[in-house]
Structure of DUF1016 domain-containing protein:
Amino acid sequence: MPTHRRPPASQPSDALPVPVPASDAPGLPPGLLDDLRSLIETARREAAAAVNTGMTLMYWRVGRRARRDVLGDQRASYGERIVSTLSRQLTLEYGRSFSEKNLRHMMRFADAFPDEQIVSTLSRQLPWSHFLELIYLKDPLARDFYAQLAAMDRWPVRVLRERMGSMLYERTAVAKQPQAVIERELQAVREGGAPSTGLLFKDPYLLDFLGLHDRHLEKDIEDAILRELETFLLELGAGFSFVARQRRIQLDNDDFYIDLLFYNRRLRRLVAIELKLGDFRPEYKGQMELYLRWLARYDQEPGDAPPLGIILCTGKKADQIELLELDKSGIHVAEYLTVLPPREVFAARVQQALANARARLEANAPANPATDDINPEQAAAAPSTPRRRTARKPNPR
């Protein structure tokens, strides 16, 4: 039996030659190969994006047209036969993309996103796989929220599933606002504006990735956050970057320390975070207001918005927080969970908190409807006029 041997290195086979790096390619002008590669790769990406946009719009139009005929007849059995017949014929002519299951996805797509202009815009930013996750969300505001943030932050479909699974929308501050406020803030993002604090701030924050058990100190939480800083930044939301831990403040010969200090480039604000064990206490407001005023005076850069504060507690006192009007001071109070309960318990808890917040909002709605849609973010005025500090700034402890 004849044997087949691999040709020696000195005798190359018919395989394609290994590309020579640009820096090693002889006889080429500097930068030429890199420029051509960039042109080719850019053109390929643009072509792939154009194909994705065209296919997504086609799916939407097919779904809209099919749905019109199916819903146009009151007999459910007739509608089922239309979908089945359409699917068999389209699959025969154009392949499995038009199976009965996919055809129903397309019809659902047209139902969930009735505005072709919105679909056209989103299809340039999101692939079909993202729409398959979004179209079966029952709440249209939640669907719009996830669509806009996925497009803005370029979430892979895996991240989109994780955000939906963690009930991100229900945990955001904006979800507890009136419908008109939610729609307006999502419209601002759709038009290219920066997200509001309501879209970024959450309650509760999920810190189960820190690996902490029932008994721990505030320092243990800080240490764990720094170990898992990348994951913590993802939980905080888009645009956050770490600045300092235990930021030292000196006032009247007294030292104060901000637990964690971040900067959000989209909000253009410093964000101070205080970690607390136990329930919220009223004195936390004065402490955070002191920190924010100091940051506004000494650390706020020209062009930045006033600093914001987040107080993370293991429990909240809703009546106290409401009376203290923390939003007007640019302070957000939220719970954090280091251990997640079972999925059903967690979902019920988040939904109940959302229902309580909306009921409280309706009960306290002002008589003048013109003031109903005031954004709490707009109510937070600058604590003082920012100026450059001439003395040396204190360093973190």
User: Anything to note?
Assistant: Strands lie at 205-206, 240-251, 254-264, 269-275, 308-313, 331-337. Residues 201-365 form a domain with the Trna Endonuclease; Chain: A, domain 1 fold (CATH 3.40.1350.10). The radius of gyration is 27 Å. Residues 252 and 294 are 13 Å apart (CA to CA).
